[in-house]
Structure to design on (427 residues):
């Protein structure tokens, strides 16, 4: 692990009886932000596993709940899966605002216990409507991983924020990789309903770790600042933040626009159709694996050279990598290109969060990061819809080429929006 620098002079540390001097209190505060990072890493990893392990068996569970028609099974599976993101897009700014007022740790505790209850109850659902309602509840009450991003962004020294957020992002992406793998195995061993119960228990462990191990450093005047003018309208420098909100939405839109066509696209590239789902899984996992490997490294690079160059560079590289994906002739070519694209995009979300952190007062961090999370959910919902439409009516290569144009436009937009006086310390 890279060595950690001392805290900057303007990082306020609450004085206690046990530590009454800056020299005595600095190691304790430094220990807190590092410990908070690794607790959030563990909690985000476990909650994402619990959230994603249902993907392989969701259609089977929908059928078990009484849906018989094949088209209806697919439709209800999509509704149940998207319900969480739909609900979360509306409440993310609210939870961020409450975190600014009452503490980000409290928001993590709320999310963990809410997800524990909702996911456990999924194992008791009797109708598909109950399943959809519980998925909506997960979106309304949950958000542990996004809440972790807010807490880590707010508590970590700014010059280490991109590395810390990159490390956290790697844990979240790893959870997205491991969850479906576990979900493909556990139902065969313990049944679908017990799998939900076990997932709820896993999140409960994260709930206990959050309560007993996270220490939130309070900053003087944060409550008063948060209680004043808030949200996007309360910002003095709106340009960089607006650019990051748009970039986050674009990233999720670009990633998810390709998801609906991957399996059909792979079917055109291989001769043995019995291996379509396996190869499609490799294609999807390749991008996630690349992001896991690069997130913390790109975050460390951004801490050294600045966040804007990394953001602009990753968007530009990903747009170039999308072009050959439209013209591949073998499945292994697509796997390699998706892996390289994952490497390129791995550091983008940490850098987006860091730029927002650098341009937003401490008392407004949660509110604005909540808006950022909502914009990403919008991209996550709109991307598959647009990708499926373009792929079905124009052709699958058009999805890759259209996404290429969007990513290139995003790189140009960030290049224009970048503050001219930005430095690695201030951007």
């Amino acid at each position: 692990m890279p060595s950690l620098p001392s805290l900057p002079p303007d990082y306020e540390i609450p004085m206690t009886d046990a530590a009454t001097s800056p020299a005595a209190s600095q190691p304790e505060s430094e220990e807190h932000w590092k410990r908070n990072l690794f607790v959030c890493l563990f909690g985000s990893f476990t909650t994402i596993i619990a959230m994603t392990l249902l993907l392989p068996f969701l259609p089977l569970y929908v059928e078990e709940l009484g849906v018989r028609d094949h088209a209806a099974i697919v439709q209800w599976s999509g509704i149940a899966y998207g319900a969480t993101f739909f609900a979360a897009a509306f409440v993310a700014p609210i939870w961020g605002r409450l975190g600014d007022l009452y503490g980000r740790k409290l928001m993590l505790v709320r999310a963990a216990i809410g997800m524990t209850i909702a996911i456990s109850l999924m194992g008791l659902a009797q109708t598909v409507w109950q399943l959809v309602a519980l998925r909506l509840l997960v979106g309304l009450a949950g958000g542990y991983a996004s809440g972790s991003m807010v807490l880590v962004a707010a508590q970590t020294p700014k010059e280490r924020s991109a590395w810390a957020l990159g490390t956290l992002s790697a844990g979240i992406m790893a959870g997205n990789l491991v969850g479906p793998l576990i979900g493909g195995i556990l139902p065969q061993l313990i049944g679908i309903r017990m799998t939900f119960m076990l997932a709820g228990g896993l999140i409960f462990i994260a709930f206990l770790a959050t309560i007993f191990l996270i220490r939130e450093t309070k900053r003087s005047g944060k409550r008063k600042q948060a209680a004043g003018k808030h949200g996007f309208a309360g910002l003095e420098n709106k340009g960089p933040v607006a650019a990051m909100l748009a970039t986050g939405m674009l990233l999720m839109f670009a990633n998810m626009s390709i998801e609906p066509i991957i399996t059909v696209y792979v079917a055109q590239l291989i001769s043995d159709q019995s291996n379509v789902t396996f190869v499609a899984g490799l294609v999807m996992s390749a991008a996630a694996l690349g992001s896991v490997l690069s997130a913390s490294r790109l975050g460390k690079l951004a801490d050294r050279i600045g966040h804007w160059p990394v953001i602009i560079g990753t968007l530009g590289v990903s747009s170039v990598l999308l072009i050959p994906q439209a013209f591949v002739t073998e499945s292994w070519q697509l796997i390699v290109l998706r892996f390289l694209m994952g490497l390129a995009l791995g550091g983008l979300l940490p850098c987006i969060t860091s730029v927002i952190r650098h341009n937003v007062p401490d008392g407004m961090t949660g509110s604005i990061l909540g808006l950022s999370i909502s914009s990403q959910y919008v991209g996550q919902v709109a991307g598959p819809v647009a990708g499926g439409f373009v792929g079905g009516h124009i052709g699958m290569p058009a999805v890759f080429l259209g996404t290429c144009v969007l990513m290139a436009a995003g790189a140009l937009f960030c290049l224009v929006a970048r503050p001219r006086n930005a430095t690695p310390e201030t951007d």
About this structure: The first helix runs from residue 22 to 52. Residues 1-29 have pLDDT under 50 and may be disordered. The chain has two domains: 1-217, 235-419. The radius of gyration is 22 Å.
